Amino acid sequence: MCWRGARPAAWFQACLSGLKAFAFSPYAWVLILATSVVWVILATTNLSLRRPEISFKRIELHDPYGAGVLSLGMQNVGTRAAFDYLLNIKTVDMGSGRVAHLENGGSSSPVTRQEEFSATVPVDMSHFLDVLAMCTTFRDDGGKQFSDPSFYVFPDLPRGDAKDKSKGRTYLAYSVDSDLRKKLDKMDVCKD
Fold it and tell me: Do 86 and 37 sit in the same domain of this protein?
């Protein structure tokens, strides 16, 4: 048995003999089996999480009531490359549930893991409602298709008469809060 106050050599020898006694006891196999099961579960979970995932790092709206351009900064934060990337930009009216299409975009070139990329998309903001829906679809190298919707608001974007004063300005988009996200997920906005 290991205890305090013993000489280092005696302490090591006592601990080693205790470990040998435990290693060949019937209880040791239970511990080894339980550890093995936990490792198998963790390995399986890790493999199922191996997929591409496109994240929006920056969404800026330039001159919304003039030329109207969305500047998008994106990154593949997943663990695999993304292929045949498609972006369907929609807008949602939260009061009525109406969904309007703004623009499409995409690329057939692969987006490797951790790769950052950007795009500028002209949009007609006269159709903008309350929420910007970024509906992304892509596939991994095995051909499995993924869809990741994300939703954003422009809290500083003027509406009504004030919109005439925003000529030439840039507005940042912010991700919606969790309650609004749940409502939008229930509405199935990105369904075609």
Answer: no
**What is the rounded distance in angstroms from the CA atom of residue 30 to the CA atom of residue 28?**
5
Give, to the nearest 10 degrees, the angle between helix 8-23 and helix 26-48. 80
Asked, for residue 176, whether it belongs to a domain, the answer is yes
Q: Which residues contact 116 (CB under 8 A, 6 or more apart)?
A: 57, 73, 74, 75
For residue 174, the enclosing domain spans 54-187
State the Cα–Cα distance between residues 164 and 161, nearest whole angstrom.
6
Look at residues 93, 82, 81, 83 and name the one whose alpha carbon lies nearest to residue 159. Answer: 93
* In a domain? residue 192: no
- Tell me the whole-structure pTM to 2 decimals: 0.70
- For residue 163, the model assigns a pLDDT of 58
- Asked whether residue 19 falls in the same domain as residue 61, the answer is no
Per the structure, the count of domains in the chain is 2
**What per-residue confidence (pLDDT) applies to 83?**
92
Cβ atoms of 108 and 84 within 8 Å: the answer is yes
pLDDT band at residue 59 under the 50/70/90 scheme: very high
Are 38 and 73 within one domain? no
Answer yes or no: is 130 within a domain: yes
Contact between residue 73 and residue 118 where contact means Cβ atoms under 8 Å apart: yes
